[in-house]
Every structure is written in C-alpha cells, then in structure tokens.
UniProtKB/TrEMBL annotation:
<dbReference type="InterPro" id="IPR000683">
    <property type="entry name" value="Gfo/Idh/MocA-like_OxRdtase_N"/>
</dbReference>
<dbReference type="GO" id="GO:0000166">
    <property type="term" value="F:nucleotide binding"/>
</dbReference>
<dbReference type="GO" id="GO:0016491">
    <property type="term" value="F:oxidoreductase activity"/>
</dbReference>
<dbReference type="Pfam" id="PF01408">
    <property type="entry name" value="GFO_IDH_MocA"/>
</dbReference>
<dbReference type="InterPro" id="IPR050463">
    <property type="entry name" value="Gfo/Idh/MocA_oxidrdct_glycsds"/>
</dbReference>
<dbReference type="InterPro" id="IPR055170">
    <property type="entry name" value="GFO_IDH_MocA-like_dom"/>
</dbReference>
<dbReference type="InterPro" id="IPR036291">
    <property type="entry name" value="NAD(P)-bd_dom_sf"/>
</dbReference>
<feature type="domain" description="GFO/IDH/MocA-like oxidoreductase">
    <location>
        <begin position="129"/>
        <end position="250"/>
    </location>
</feature>
<dbReference type="Pfam" id="PF22725">
    <property type="entry name" value="GFO_IDH_MocA_C3"/>
</dbReference>
<keyword id="KW-0560">Oxidoreductase</keyword>
<feature type="domain" description="Gfo/Idh/MocA-like oxidoreductase N-terminal">
    <location>
        <begin position="3"/>
        <end position="121"/>
    </location>
</feature>
<protein>
    <submittedName>
        <fullName>Fructose reductase</fullName>
    </submittedName>
</protein>
Length: 337
C-alpha cells in the first residue's frame, strides 16, 4: 500500500531530507500544515504537495496515514497526542518533547491508539555507526572500555533562530545535539548510560538562558566511560566517534552528519583496516523501516522508547550542568494512562 503523509511543520529538514526520503521509499506527501498560511501554501507549491493547511485538525482530518512532526520542540507533545487520537502513525523529530515524562505520554498514547511512534534519530542509520556496532558485537576490539564523540559544529545561519534565542521552544545545544549523541552511543555500544556529568557554556551565539556548547562524561551500565563534545560555535572542527576496547580501537571520522559519508578504521595489534560502509541515505533507511513497521514488519529504526531515553539523557545533562553534580539517568518514569 502507498502510505500517505501529512507534514506537521513546513521545515527545512523536511525540505532537505525527509520529503525525498518518503518518496524514495514509496510514500506520498499528501499535505503540509503551517501556522503561517502563506508559508504553508508556498511550501506546498515549491515541494509538489497537493494540500496546505493552517490548522492541525484539518490536516488530521485529511486522507493521510502518517505524520512527520518537525515543528519547534515545545509543540511536539500536543501535536503527537492529537495525531495518535486521530489514528495516525507518527515520526517525530528529536527531542520528542521538553521532558521525558511528556515523551513517555506520547509513547503511551501511541500504544493505546495502536499506531507506530518513531523518533527521527537519523545517526543510527549511518553505515559508519552500524559497522561500528557490528564490529563491537563480533568482538573485534575485545571489551569496550571507553568512547569519545566529537560533535561540535557551526550552526548555519538559516537554522539559528529559535535554537539560539528561545528557551521556551526548547532551544540550546543539549536538546539539539546531545540527544543525538546519547542515542548514537546507546546504539553503537549496545548498552544504556546510567550517569552523566556535564558542563555547558554560552560562547557568544546563544541568548540568555541557553547554552551553545556542552561537554559530557558518561558512565554506562557495562562500566564503560565516554566523553562527548557538542557545540554550535566551532566553525573549523571535525566530527568523529571513537570506541576503545581491550583488544583494539574503532576510529571514525566525519560521521556525525546527516550525509552518508565518513570512514571507520579498525586498529588492532595486527595493524589497521578500513571497514566497508554502506552509503545509503540515513533518512531513506529510517523511512523504509518506518513504512515496514506500519505494515507490521519489525520496528522503526529509533522507537518512541529510544526517544524517551535520549531525552532523559539530555535532561540529566542539563541538571548536572546546573547543579555541578553527576546525575543518574532515569528514563523509566511511568505516567498513568
């Protein structure tokens, strides 16, 4: 069957990545909703979308099967709950909400409505990260004992806006990038973090009340410790991901990105080798898995539960930065249905 989509939010990420991925995986974009009618109509024309709405109820009443939510973070919760009540499957940008408790409400609502809820954590779909995960599972580096993530970039001007200026919208680097690093670490290592210590900074780009840089130290259930650096302000930094084990290391370069690029080197006592990587679209792989989940064939690449986990990690990082103490990561808070 052809899955018909409604876009909640006329966003840059949908334009640049998600619309093409939906179509490439056999879906159809039926409608877009923007609270700005002129923007929505122009967006629909520019992207070949038949219908544009300025009201969420109108979009959810249209002939669609699924929604992609890419509005500002504070809007995700109510939009997702409304979509679940309307029986629509939900792919939601990270973070799922402004708190892990609210994210848990989304998971519960989707379960009650029997719809698929996925978090758009694109990085776990990268060939580099999947190759690292499989190498670790195969014992290529022995027991993993430490990891480092380099994910400090320069936020392009056209994306700055609310991410740097609006605390109420869920701006700041932790809710934008640390959530991704949390998910990528969990995915690659195959273990959950249990504690985090974090420092944040305002290095000149962020408005009062927001951070534009963060450094975190993570402790995992396996005993592994990890370091991550997230930022909006570093124009010339490279991204990367390292995992070090008792018998070897994985050194990945240029892999914390939306594009299927980068390399992974396996270094052991016998030398170095570059791992072969699949170069498919990260978003295409995510949409293929999501469509399959709607058909009852497996799970989405990153589930709603994964989104709860990454948001709980971000919450703990912000609390640690605020209090100066290590904070336990507890995503298991349940809400009444």
């Amino acid at each position: 069957m052809t899955i018909r989509w409604g876009l909640i939010g006329a966003s840059n990420i949908a334009r640049e990545y998600v619309i093409d991925a939906i179509r490439a995986e056999g879906g159809e974009i039926a409608a877009v909703m923007s609270s700005n009618p002129e923007r929505g109509a122009a967006y629909a024309r520019e992207n070949g979308i038949p219908l544009a709405f300025a009201n969420l109820d109108d979009l959810l009443s249209a002939d669609i099967d699924a929604v992609y939510i890419s509005t500002t973070n504070e809007l995700h919760l109510e939009q997702a709950l409304a979509a679940a009540r309307a029986g629509k499957h939900i792919l939601c940008e990270k973070p799922l909400a402004l708190s892990s408790n609210d994210a848990r409400k989304m998971v519960v609502a989707a379960s009650i409505a029997n719809v698929v809820l996925a978090t758009n954590h694109h990085l776990r779909n990268a060939g580099a990260h999947r190759a690292m995960r499989e190498a670790i599972r195969a014992g290529a580096i022995g027991k993993p004992v430490a990891a480092r993530v380099f994910h400090s970039v320069y936020l392009p001007e056209h994306l700055q806006g609310w991410r740097l200026k609006d605390p109420a919208a869920g701006g700041g680097v932790v809710l934008d990038i640390t959530v991704h690093d949390a998910d990528t670490l969990r995915f690659v290592l195959g273990h959950d973090p249990i504690e985090i210590s974090a420092f944040t900074q305002a290095a000149g780009m962020a408005a009062s009340g927001l951070e534009d840089g963060a450094m975190c130290i993570w402790r995992f259930k396996s005993g592994l410790i990890a370091q991550s650096h997230e930022g909006f302000t570093t124009k010339f930094a490279e991204t990367g991901f390292e995992v070090h084990g008792t018998e070897g290391s994985l050194i990945a370069s240029d892999v914390m990105t939306q594009k299927p690029v980068g390399s992974v080197i396996l270094r052991t006592a016998i030398g170095e080798e570059e791992l072969p990587l699949e170069r498919e679209s990260l978003y295409g792989r995510a949409l293929g898995a999501f469509h399959a989940a709607i058909r009852g064939e497996g799970q989405p690449a990153a589930t709603g539960e994964d989104g709860v986990w990454s948001l709980a990690c971000a919450e703990a990082a912000l609390q640690s930065a605020r209090t100066g103490r290590a904070v336990k990561i507890e995503p298991g808070v349940r809400v009444r249905t």
